[in-house]
Amino acid sequence: MIVSAYCPSHISGYFRRMGGKDRSVTGSTGAGIVIDPGIAVTVSPATRTTVSIHQNMGRGRIRQIADRSPPLESALCRVGVDARVITTCTLPVGAGFGLSASALIATLTAINHLEDLGMGPHEIAKIAHETEVEHRTGLGDVAACQGGGRVVRAGAGIDGDIHRYHDISGPISAVSFGPIHTPSVISSAAQMARVEEAYPVLTPTTVDEFFQASRAFALKSGLVTPEIMRVLNACAAEGVLCGMTMLGNGVFAYGKKARSVLRPFGHVFQCRMATEGARIIGVNP
Hints:
This protein has 2 domains: 2-163 and 273-284, Ribosomal Protein S5, domain 2 (2-Layer Sandwich); 167-271, 2-Layer Sandwich (Alpha-Beta Plaits). The chain is 33% helix and 34% strand. It contains 9 helices and 12 strands. Strands 1, 2, 3, 4, 5, 6, 7, 8, 9, 10, 11 and 12 form a 12-stranded mixed β-sheet that branches. A hairpin with an 8-residue loop joins β1 and β2 (27-45). α1 crosses α3 and α2 crosses α3. It is globular, with a radius of gyration of 18 Å. The model has no long low-confidence stretch (mean pLDDT 95).
């Protein structure tokens, strides 16, 4: 049997690390948007676990970008299953789109079906979140990706207080200049102190307020690179709502002019707000 699953990804506009007594309640608060495209995963039985990560380059071109994933391997070990795992994404890996969380949730969703493990969405999210925290690949993306919408996370972990707003109807544009090494950022006490200081005082309730808070957070956090600053300035000049993809060296923007303003800075990825979380998309006996 081959089982395929899909999980949307997540752009975080701002965040704050939150420690806890264990990995289940360690994470972050913050706000972001759950987006499509995410990650599609196929799993099949194997005598030992193998992982192959692919990126869809467009025009029918798909290339392998990695043949290992310690977080995915760790999650499969935790549930006691060996499998052949193939993941495919469109957005760039390590660029602030929450793809590690998406891959973990989609893989565990598919494995659960393949091996009839009897896990519910909550248990799958719990394992995915704790794996992210263990490997320092993310703090709040799993919590967000449990569902769709524009998300405000007022508590850490998958059981934290989460508010979802389905108020973004148009396309979301994004440009990436490459990855930011997430583990080195979230494990830096000095950088996390700057992030803490930049965290918004007021929780945004509207789309405009969310983007304004995200842009202000990026500028105050010390994470903005020269490439990002140029894009933020261009968006400001045209009145385009924007923020930095946390944690990635890129910008996401919203509005009628967003795509045209981002286009001079590189390939523009077109996304949309996701309306639901992970699901099975195919089963081949």
